[in-house]
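Troubleshooting log. The previous structure file for this entry was overwritten by mistake, so regenerating from the original sequence record. Sequence copied from the archived sheet and checked twice against the printout by T.R.
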Amino acid sequence: MIEVKRLVYGYQASEKPVLNGIDLTVRQGEYVALIGPNGSGKTTFVKHLNALLVPLEGSVSVDGMDTRNPRDVPEIRRRVGMVFQDPDSQIVGMTVEEDLAFGPGNLRLPPQQIRRLVDDTLAKLGLSGLAKRIPHTLSGGEKRLVAIAGVLIMKPRCLVLDEPTAYLDPAGRQRVLGIIRELNNEGITVLHIAHDLQDIADASRIVLMNGGTVLLDGAPGDILNEGEILETLNLAVPPITELMRRLREQGWSVATNVLTVQEALVEIMASLPGKKGEAHLCAGGAVEAVSHV
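Regenerated output below.
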């Protein structure tokens, strides 16, 4: 769906490029997590995917459409919707339902169709009870979901999210992550910039950026198992991964490329004599073990 070739970009021609020769392909339906230290170019990169920025060198195409072609930009932006880190920067309506109606209204859709789209999108994200609310009265998690709804109502094929769980409490974080997971399960391509690596356990692939280039690109378990590289870049290894690494160091016969409590539990139980297949009995114990890492 998205093809990036030798992408180079800089905000000032005289300065070192922020992006320096990125090659990346994203297939329809993938869930790609984008990680890296501050200043690695993640946000600048994703702004190229819906033509908010265009390459100084190289190319970015969406379904075969070149982002440098002005005639293709409106369709590219319909197919690739972006949710910024600060939801207040893209909520424009006086109420939640007015905000959702903004995009379809600009397409001059009939009022009845807009009403139906708004109601369906609110219901899909569990926001129907907030339809009449004024956006600034919402919680952080609710604002994030409204921002996602404002993009989702335009029927994108790809959803780009820039740290969608930043500054949220645990409940808000899990609600947002659950919605992202559901949308991906329905076939929407997801590109998720994440700072907390625990947020990307559902990703099908992780791309690690540093210094404006792609440093690593692979399966989540493999990338998160690169503890030395992650620590060098000040990226905290998820507790589950750290737990499995420590068990391995102590002689346990467990894989270290696991991301969830359930996967860790299977590995731990399988390494105990006579306990293989009993993993489901000890979920609470595994969670308690992880909390002490």
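Residues 239-291 form one domain. Archived copy saved in two places this time.
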